[in-house]
Amino acid sequence: MRGLHDRVRQCRRSQRRAVRRREQVLLFEALESRFLLTATADDSRPVGGVTVDPLAHSSSSLIVQFRPGASAPGSLSAYQAMQTVDPAWALTPGMHKVEINAISDYQSALAAFSQDPNVAFVEPDYRIQLQADQLPAVTPNDPDFNQTWGLNNVGQTGGTPGADIHAPGAWAETTGSTTTIVAVIDTGVDYNHPDLYENIWINQKEIPASRKQNLTDIDGDGLITFRDLNDPANQGAGKITDINKDGRIDGGDLLSAMKKTGGTDNGNGGWADGSDTDHNGQVDDLVGYNFASQSNDPMDDHFHGTHVSGTIGAMGNDGFGVAGINWQVEIMPLKFLDSSGGGYESDAINALNYAVANGAVVSNNSWGAAISRRRFKRPCRTPPSTVTFLLPRRATMARTTIHTPFIRPAITSIT
Q1: If one looks up domain 36-133 in CATH, what number appears?
Q2: Whole-angstrom distance, CA of residue 131 vs CA of residue 100
């Protein structure tokens, strides 16, 4: 009878050990989201923003995951190859850094631990490098790029080399995207500028159906952009032509009046057909809106909005002018400041509301006020689906006046 009880107890202990073993495995697998390295078929792929070089690793250490209940190798060959075992990491029970004996061959030690009965897995102690550090910096061919010390400071104006945003290193990762919409809530934007025109936003919902049916998405981004319109395939009758005769297709061409015959588009002229195609209350808001004059023309008559737009998204590597932080981007011109640089808070709120409603994920607001702006802060916190960056230009503000930038818990404010 006692023998039967002993076998039952032994069976139950085995079951408990099996359960604990399964729990340990599940716990370890759950930690994969923390970017811990595991044995994979392709050890060279990027992991969590870093790159693992399969040929670069420590020649004196291994990463060893022991099986539950074990903290040392069970084979003589692995034991002899081992110098020391570091304490297990709290995040990964049973995982240790193992130092190899100086007289042991690295590959032999790796093979010994991989075959050890107490080891779940073993891998080299790889060297990890940030991806950006492994990519060469990208320098655009824009002739005036060397003047933009904020993007790449080499002391060209007497400043401190390296005191910049390290743009060439960032461009090794990305130079922007036409799917990113940045609203410039300011004095407007010169949408015909030769270093901005291809990066001006187009209201997709306002494109007249009679023209859109003839257009081709050249770059396959799902949008009709000025990059598409400057391809010859999208130029001509029933599409768009260089109406303002500046040698390119830009915002001024789209905002030109559509030519009609008997009330129907005859294929000539611009896209302004006098209708509110997207039913948002703004007629022909093809490239943004002017809330200062309540018109569809957000042309800059001050220059400030054009200046900040160049920093955000001057066309890069085009052999002209400067390069913006984003070589490709959709800049949405929203004008509420007049030619004197002043405007009303209600129009600023209208502009922000428009930006959110039309897909902007970032807005630039390089202005401020000498009073608390509770009315503006509230709509800034309201939209749950947008990320709005507010950028007060403190360097240009008078020291004798207290200005209040939009710093709120729900707002990211960069100064």
Answers
A1: 3.30.70
A2: 29
